Amino acid sequence: VQPNNYSTFYDDQRQNWSIMFESEKAAMDFSKQVCIAKCNSSSVFDSVLYQDLLLGEGQGAEGGDSLEIAYTGWLFQNNGIGQVFDSNANKEKLLRLKLGSGKVIKGWEEGMMGMKKGGRRYLIIPPALAYGTQGVAGRVPPDSTLVFEVEVRRVKLVKEGSGSDGQSVSSRDSLAPSPVPNSDGFSAD
User: The PPIase FKBP-type domain covers which part of the protein (predicted)?
Assistant: First the structure.
C-alpha cells in the first residue's frame, strides 16, 4: 500500500502493477484480502503473514523498543475472518509491549518488527506462533490461526546513548491519548 491510495505488486511473471483506489478504506480492504489469499494459497503455513495497511513514519521498531498498540483479533475460520476474540480498539487503554520481551505470542513479536508510529498492519499468525495446541479457554480454540489488525500509536526507541543505564530513550508521541506508563507491566494477551 502506497500513499494516495495506491497499491503496487508483482505478478507471477514479475510484472509490476499499480492500482489506484477511490479511498484509503478501499485500498486497505483490498490489501487485507490479498493477505487472506496468501494464507489460503500457502501449502505450508508456518510463519507470520503480514500486510502493511499504512506505513507510518519514523524509524521502524526493533527488539527492545516499546510500542503502544490498538488492535483487534479475529479467529481465522472457513478460509476467512471469523469472530472477534479480543480487541482494545474501542477502549482508552492501549496495549503496551516491549519487542523481544516474550510477554506476547511469538507471532506478534515477529509481526510487529519494523512497524513505525502511525503504522497499521494486518497479521495472520499460524497456531504454532500463537496459542498452539493449548488455545485460550473460552476464547481461542486449540490450533487456531489468528488474524490481527494492529495500529502503532506510540513508539519508544531504545538507542545506544549516555543515559544513566547506558541507554537513552527517544519517545515520539502521537495525538492519540495513551495510558499512564507503568514499569514493564505488559499484558500477556
Answer: 64-156
What is the model's pTM?
Answer: 0.78
**Structural contact between residues 115 and 66, judged by C-beta atoms closer than 8 angstroms:** no
User: Which among 21, 81, 86, 143 is annotated as catalytic?
Assistant: 86
The domain made up of 44-156 is a member of CATH 3.30.390.30: no
Closest CA to 127 of 188, 70, 63, 46: 46
pLDDT (0 to 100) of residue 186: 39
Q: Is 148 a catalytic residue?
A: yes
- 105 given a catalytic annotation: yes
86 is catalytic: yes
Point out the catalytic residue in the list 105, 122, 124, 125.
105
Catalytic residue chosen out of the listed positions 45, 50, 65, 71: 71
Q: Which of 85, 122, 124, 125 is catalytic?
A: 85
**Mean predicted confidence (pLDDT) in 93-100:** 92
37-41, 91-95, 138-142, 179-183: the lowest-pLDDT one: 179-183
Q: Cα–Cα distance between 109 and 123 in angstroms, integer?
A: 11
Cell 514493564 belongs to 184
Domain ranges of the chain: 44-156
